[in-house]
TrEMBL record:
First and last residue of the signal peptide: none
Name of the protein in question: DNA-binding transcriptional regulator YbjK
A GO term for molecular function: DNA binding
Upper taxonomic lineage: Bacteria, Bacillati, Actinomycetota, Actinomycetes, Propionibacteriales
Entry annotated with the keyword Repressor: no
């Protein structure tokens, strides 16, 4: 809904209509617009975490150590192909909510927690892969990968070329894990 109509189209009444529930249902559960935004944002964060667990092959340090740069890039490319394909609307909604969220103090904690989760995961990945400075490079890795997604969404590039995504991600990973190039 957010991806289709933007945040201006997000009202309790519109949620009721889209969900085909009686009028007033959304406002019963989410009394304010901010409460509605919080619930949507939390759901997006949870879905992103589930997707990451599904598409990324890194369950522990040992699997990362044994994984080469190309295999890591392939995992990220699978995830991004999903987000830019079937998950495209959700990704557009996430960006809209992240931008809007900075205007609402009530959403800051949720946004900061989500950011910390992604950056923490990047730091763990880099540390396990023997990266030279995971604390410095974790936020950089997240920013670069997020920028790749943002570019695909904002520029409205149709279709997803998983091989090209993999190549770009391999370049990014090579920048923060030069010893694996």
């Amino acid at each position: 809904m957010v991806a289709d109509s933007g945040l201006r189209g997000l009202t309790h009444r519109a949620v009721d209509a889209r969900a085909e529930v009686p009028a007033g249902s959304a406002s019963y559960y989410f009394r304010t617009r901010v409460a509605l935004l919080q619930a949507i944002l939390q759901r997006l964060i949870d879905l992103d975490a589930a997707d990451s667990a599904t598409y990324l092959p890194f369950d522990d340090e040992a699997s990362v150590r044994a994984t080469d740069l190309a295999a890591m890039a392939a995992g990220w490319a699978r995830l991004f192909t999903h987000w830019l394909g079937p998950g495209r609307q959700r990704l557009r909604a996430r960006y809209a909510l992240y931008l809007e969220g900075r205007h609402h103090a009530e959403l800051h904690e949720l946004l900061d927690t989500a950011s910390a989760r992604f950056v923490g995961g990047a730091r763990e990945l880099l540390a396990a892969a023997g990266g030279p400075d995971p604390d410095r490079d974790g936020p950089l890795l997240v920013a670069l990968l997020d920028g790749l997604l943002y570019d695909q969404i904002i520029r409205g590039r149709p279709g997803v070329d998983e091989a090209e995504l993999r190549r770009r991600i391999e370049v990014i990973l090579g920048a923060v894990l030069p010893h694996l190039r």
